[in-house]
Amino acid sequence: MCGLLGGVPLAIALLPGITMEGGFSIAARMIPIALFLIVNRVISVWPENTRTAHPLMVLMPAVIGIVEDSLIWLPASWVAGLMDLALEIDGILPMVLGALIVRLTALALLALPSRVARAD
To answer: TM spans, by residue (predicted)?
Structure first.
């Protein structure tokens, strides 16, 4: 989830093909993040443990996830348009690059070691 919270606004800020008119309001940010969360919860394509998985077991779901995330940008733009929040995607390349940014952000945050409470 943290990867989505960071990756979606990062993709919107970095890519010139994904624009959000009227700034980064909380409602405008939450539309694509909510769609990414819902779809990624319904269709889970992550290996159970990314730290010990074989590289192919991480690479294949990542590629499938990029395709999945690319397709999420279209309904996010449509729903934002219905709510008068101007999220515009200017073609296939910004969708794929946005999906790559979101997926890499999520994968990078999953790969970070988690805190373990010390028993002192």
So the answer is: 30-46, 58-80, 92-112
Quote the CA–CA distance of 99 and 86 in Å, as a whole number: 19
Counts for the chain of helices (H) and strands (E), in that order: 4, 2
Amino acid of residue 46: W
Cα–Cα distance for residue pair 87/104, rounded to 1 Å: 21
Q: What would the pLDDT profile of 72-111 be if each residue is shown by its tens digit?
A: 888 888 877 777 777 788 888 998 998 888 888 877 877 7
For residue 84, give both structure tokens: 């008068």
Q: Could you state, in order of their start, the residue ranges of all structural domains in the chain?
A: 2-111
Query: Cβ contacts of residue 90 below 8 Å, gap of 6+?
Result: 16, 17, 18, 19
Phi, psi at residue 52, to the nearest 5°?
A: -115, 0
Q: Alpha carbon of 27 to those of 12, 49, 57, 63: distances in Å?
A: 14, 33, 36, 29
